Amino acid sequence: MTLSTINPSLPLIDLHHHLDGSVRLETILDLGLKHNLPLPAKTLKGLQPFVQVTDQQPGVMAFIEKFKWMVGVLVDYDACRRIAYENVEDAASQGIDYIELRYSPWFMAEAHALNPQGVVEAVTDGIRAGEREFGVRANQIGILSRHYGPEIAHKELSALLSCKNEITALDLAGDEGNFPGELFVDHFNKAREAGWHITVHAGEIKGPQSIWQAIRELKAERIGHAVHAMEDPALIAYMAEHCIGVECCLTSNVQTSTVSDYQSHPMSGFLQNGLLATLNTDDPGISAIDLHFEYQVAAPAAGLTYDQIKQAQKNAIDIAFLGRVEKQQLIDKKKVN
After folding, report:
1. 3-state helix, strand, coil in the chain (%, to 5)
2. Sheet harboring 137-145: ordered strands across?
3. What is the pLDDT of residues 264-310, one digit of tens each?
4. Which position has the higher pLDDT, 203 or 335?
5. Residue range 9-336, CATH number
6. Among residues 86, 156, 176, 204, which one is catalytic?
7. If you placed Cys at 97, which of 9, 11, 70, 253 could pair as Cys (CB 3.0 to 4.6 Å)?
8. Is 204 one of the catalytic residues?
9. Rounded to an integer, what distance in angstroms lies between the CA atom of residue 52 and that of residue 279?
């Protein structure tokens, strides 16, 4: 497949992109050496196997271990600001028109005992500077990391609410197996009261019931991954009828062994059943891919037809956390260019 798998007349959009899972290898090395951190290697080639996936991982939590040095170099707020800025710069270099950058401020703050509120403020500064410099539209999605438990999640939510007007949506991510969504209902009630959209990682480790819970109790408008949704035809029908978006991450799902290979991924089935499924990068710094790879290599490998890939690109506009006018502006901008 060639670049023609990306429709140039439509905006190119990445809706599921972890900012803290997309730190440049060069930045990790630079910050590590600058601050005398105990890096596992002092060359880019040496660092690569500690940061990027080279083989399939035995599960999602093993994949998450690769974050160690992504967040391990966040020694201060300047470092947080830098990686946010570089995420926008990298989006611009790929020709991305709109990106939603999600991150867990508690997770980013933990390694060097930063204030999570300070992390949110620094990330906001970096993203806004990147927008001004590179002309890419970017929105923030705050993450509650399940594995810290509901009490810490309340503190993490407070940090995000301190910059309420800069956050577009709330997400729940991490150890789905041991920390079910039922523990976080109150958190998401507060997020909706703040006027935020809701997206939830669900159906990546657990089955369809986890997705049902995210939709019914957390009021999710979109689901991250949703790989196990196809096990429940009633769920698929409901998601299609109620326009519940799906943030598919093909390469990530293969690397975490959520699916055995690209051909086993359910995205083609999602699209055949009318779901608003989209192509996204997840943690491109860890997966060593970009959005073009997902369109040109991963999607065809997963059995998506040319028309399905185009539909996925259109779906991204439909389910983006933007207002109608903002969506139209993105579309109009492509027509002008």
Report:
1. 55, 15, 30
2. 13-18, 98-103, 137-145, 167-173, 197-202, 222-225, 245-248, 277-279
3. 999 999 999 999 999 999 999 999 999 999 999 999 999 999 999 99
4. 203
5. 3.20.20.140
6. 204
7. 11
8. yes
9. 20
